[in-house]
Write a structure and sequence with these properties.
Uracil-DNA Glycosylase, subunit E, six-stranded mixed beta sheet, 8 strands, 15% strand, alpha/beta, 2 domains, rod-shaped
């Protein structure tokens, strides 16, 4: 391909019919210097008059063309920059409009609904010395099912408690008290305080000395820690009653193997009731 290109250039460079300026360009492209006579030699055939390229004017024209090109490119570059900025501004404006936020506003961190502690409780006054709290699935049936009521009666009988006169009507407590209610403190701490207030009012009302809690979600709110050990039976500070916390009735019905564990956890309560 290169040889063919050179042959073509030679053809035009040696062809007298080609314009002299173009012929000079072909020779220059091949790296061949062109020499011309400055004077007519004695006895020699007069040399033809050649048109010589005025390099200064050509160079000046190239510089001028280059300046014009640079100016045009600069203008195009400025235009592209302005267009890009306009697009970005429009995108930012649209984003802000869609979010309905001010430019300097910050997105609030939203706590997933599944992470919010929710529970429902039923409170039962059994006798002067014992009351019971049973945790139920959140916002479900308020009364005990036949299976749950039968299990509770059997547990009370095993503890030596006569519950024949108890009608097992409950006072209910739900958390959160109002759905979507925002609290100023940490959510679990707020739930603990609200539950504590409910229990304190019931204790002042009924005067029980023992509170048996069948817990699920509220387990973490009531169980104390002593090193790595869980304390599920303890006396409430600055109050004259004891907590006993174990698995909910619903959990024992779903997983009967828990009954042995529950019975072990109820032994301190059984001793106090028998004394």
């Amino acid at each position: 391909m290169a040889k063919k290109y050179i042959y073509i250039l030679l053809y035009y460079a040696l062809n007298n019919s080609v314009n002299e300026l173009r012929r000079q360009a072909y020779l220059e492209a091949m790296g061949i210097k062109v020499y011309y006579p400055r004077a007519t030699l004695p006895g020699a055939k007069p040399s033809p008059r050649y048109e010589l390229a005025e390099k200064s004017s050509v160079s000046g024209k190239r510089i001028e063309d280059s300046s014009k090109y640079s100016a045009i490119e600069q203008q195009k570059s400025n235009q592209r920059g302005a267009q890009a900025k306009a697009v970005i501004d429009n995108q930012e404006t649209e984003l802000i409009r869609n979010r309905d936020l001010k430019p300097d506003a910050k997105l609030e961190q939203i706590t997933p609904d599944s992470d919010i502690l929710k529970f429902s409780l039923g409170y039962y006054s059994i006798n002067d010395s014992l009351s019971v709290i049973n945790e139920m699935p959140h916002l479900t049936a308020r009364s005990l099912s036949e299976e749950s009521l039968s299990l509770l009666r059997n547990i009370l009988t095993a503890l030596g408690v006569n519950a024949d006169g108890c009608n097992f009507s409950s006072e209910n407590f739900d958390w959160p008290i109002v759905e979507g209610l925002s609290v100023a403190t940490e959510p679990n701490q707020a739930a603990r305080q609200a539950l504590g207030g409910f229990i304190t009012m019931r204790q002042q009302q009924d005067g029980f000395s023992n509170l048996l809690v069948f817990a699920g979600e509220i387990d973490e709110l009531l169980v104390k820690k002593s090193g790595k050990e869980e304390v599920r039976d303890y006396k409430v500070e600055q109050a004259d009653y004891y907590f006993t916390i174990t698995n909910s009735l619903q959990m024992m019905l779903s997983y009967p193997r828990l009954k042995r564990e529950v019975w072990d956890q109820l032994q301190p309560l059984k001793q106090r009731l028998n004394n």
